[in-house]
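Lab notebook, design round three. We kept the backbone fixed and only want residue identities now. Task for the bench partner: fill in a sequence for the structure below.
Input structure tokens:
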């Protein structure tokens, strides 16, 4: 606790590794990984509403992606408060990538690093409201930072914290069918409203790589619903899980395969412990991407 608020962290991870043939003749292989994390203070506003206000980034945010169509050249962008620690973070991440991705490690011909400085004292520059049981609205996104370079020609498309906001928008419905946790039991099951992830996928993709807007437009062919149920209930916490396996097309041969939402509340006062959403998009060969965001109470 800090004053009359609760401390939370929101973090996300998005990765795509895609290959195929573009326009029937051009082979391509594209890798993209982007992640960010931020601490918030949540203050109760009115009945069953919480206002989340940004406090600080608790680690560097980064974007690592291939350039062009062949997956041989890369750029790594990272934003942190301290240039030295951000550089070390970048070096560690690039080493980890080479170790875990032998194809790219062999094909890689060059990597450009560009570090950004996060200014202090930007409290409140990111924010949103959350209903007690998980619907987000009224988003604020005024977070700014700049590259650690004197080169005035630098114009890099790096929206790691705007992507955080876009993923927070995927919490677009309450995870409960009732107004009180006490009304649930282990046999209670229910459905979400019809869901369409296309707007979120497009804004996340376009925020990660500007070229995406020219080549990739996600259009979910039909909506689907999460099937919710109580998976755990005891004196300390209540856990609720929603899941769907829609196999619905969103772009070309790529389909949304699996969607999960796992939410935990404190039993005594219904305070949120954690709320995680994950999304898996792949074609029949298993090629595609994965996204996850989690909002978690900091102890």
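Proposed sequence:
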């Amino acid at each position: 606790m800090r004053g009359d608020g609760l401390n939370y962290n929101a973090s996300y991870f998005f990765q795509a590794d895609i290959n195929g043939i573009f326009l029937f003749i051009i082979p391509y292989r594209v890798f993209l990984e982007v992640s960010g994390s931020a601490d918030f203070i949540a203050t109760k506003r009115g009945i069953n509403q919480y206002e989340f206000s940004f406090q600080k980034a608790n680690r560097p945010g980064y974007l690592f992606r291939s350039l062009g169509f062949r997956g041989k050249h890369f750029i790594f962008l990272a934003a942190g408060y301290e240039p030295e620690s951000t550089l070390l973070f970048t070096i560690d991440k690039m080493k980890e990538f080479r170790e875990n991705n032998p194809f790219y490690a062999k094909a890689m011909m060059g990597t450009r690093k560009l570090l950004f400085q996060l200014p202090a004292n930007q409290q409140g520059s990111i924010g949103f409201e959350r209903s007690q049981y998980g619907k987000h609205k009224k988003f604020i996104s005024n977070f700014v930072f700049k590259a650690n370079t004197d080169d005035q020609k630098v114009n890099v498309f790096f929206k790691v914290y705007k992507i955080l906001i876009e993923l927070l928008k995927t919490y677009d419905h309450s995870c409960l069918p009732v107004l009180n946790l006490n009304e649930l039991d282990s046999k209670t099951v229910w459905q979400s409203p019809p869901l369409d992830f296309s707007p979120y996928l497009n804004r996340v993709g376009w925020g990660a790589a500007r070229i995406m807007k020219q080549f990739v437009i996600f259009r979910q062919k039909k909506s689907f619903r999460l099937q919710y149920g109580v998976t755990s209930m005891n004196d300390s916490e209540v856990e609720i899980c929603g899941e769907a396996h829609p196999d619905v097309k969103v772009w070309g041969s790529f389909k949304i395969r699996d969607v999960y939402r796992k939410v935990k509340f404190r039993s005594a006062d219904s305070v949120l412990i954690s709320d995680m959403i994950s999304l898996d998009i792949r074609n029949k060969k298993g090629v595609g991407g994965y996204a996850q965001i989690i909002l978690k109470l900091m102890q």
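Keep this in mind before ordering anything: Residues 83-100 form the longest helix (18 residues).
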